[in-house]
Amino acid sequence: MVIGLGWLLTRTGFLSAPTLAELNRLTYWVGLPALLASRIGAATPAYDRVGSLLVVLIGTTAAVVLIGALIGRAGRLPAGSLATFVQAAYRGNLTFIGLPVVIYAFAGSQAPAAVESAALIAFAPLVIVYNVVAVVIMQPRVGAGLGAATARLMRRLLGNPILIGTGVGMAIAISGWPLPVSVDRTLSAIGQMALPLALIGIGGGLHATRLVGHRRWALGAALLKTAITPLIGAALALGVGLDAGETRLALIFLACPTASAAYVLVREMDGDDALMAGAIVISYPLALPSMALVLSLTG
């Protein structure tokens, strides 16, 4: 409903494109880092469970990359379209969809805060994996050498506010030193604005994105992302021995729709931007029932 509100506000002209861009910038650079620092720093994370969560999250990602590559090759996709198809199939919108849904899903639940914090800590390495794999699979489309692409990737990661917020939260949690009340309440207040603004921004972005070309492949990538990926994750979670709460957290991340940021990377690296745009648009309505099913089955 909040995503729909963002779409409606943009559709009616209440939110202009420049305003929407500034709100997204505020959320990404200020709101979400404050939220992560506050949430992770406030609890004693279950570090022993972070490894198991990462096995499920990264293992599932590897499996989907392989499946996507096999399907694309079987369909004789050109190199740029193949790399784009694979990226659309595995790269979920963790920042603007995964984080809000995880936090809202656990609001008022009986799950320990440590489990939620463990999931948020596992989120950071997953963001890194998503970015590294994206550059690797798109590399054949880049005119510059691998060194230049790697340097750009490292600059993006080192300056990533989401990873910085996670690091600050971990430092607070590990130190065991409570934050001054004024600082704690400030981080919490700023962080609370991030969740609705992130979802409103997604809705506005969907209004601006058009579904053009390669619709069959876009649908295939979206189905891989929102339907097959959670099923693979559920099987891995069962094999690793995650409990119900941990499984829910992992599957929320895995069921996220395709990340909007992937479109920017595809355009920068001469991929198939029409295919990526289509996959992003289609994956959002498909993700809604998928994520609802995840929450109802494992809650």
TrEMBL record:
Transmembrane segments: 53-72, 93-111, 117-137, 157-177, 189-206, 218-242, 248-266, 275-297
Gene Ontology biological process: transmembrane transport
Major subcellular site: membrane
Pfam families for this protein: Mem_trans
Membrane topology: Multi-pass membrane protein
Ranges in coiled-coil conformation: none
Keyword Glycoprotein: no
Keywords: Cell membrane, Membrane, Transmembrane, Transmembrane helix, Transport
Gene Ontology CC terms, in alphabetical order: plasma membrane
Keyword Heme tagged: no
Localization per record: Cell membrane
PANTHER family: AUXIN EFFLUX CARRIER FAMILY PROTEIN
Family: Belongs to the auxin efflux carrier (TC 2.A.69) family.
UniProt name for this protein: AEC family transporter
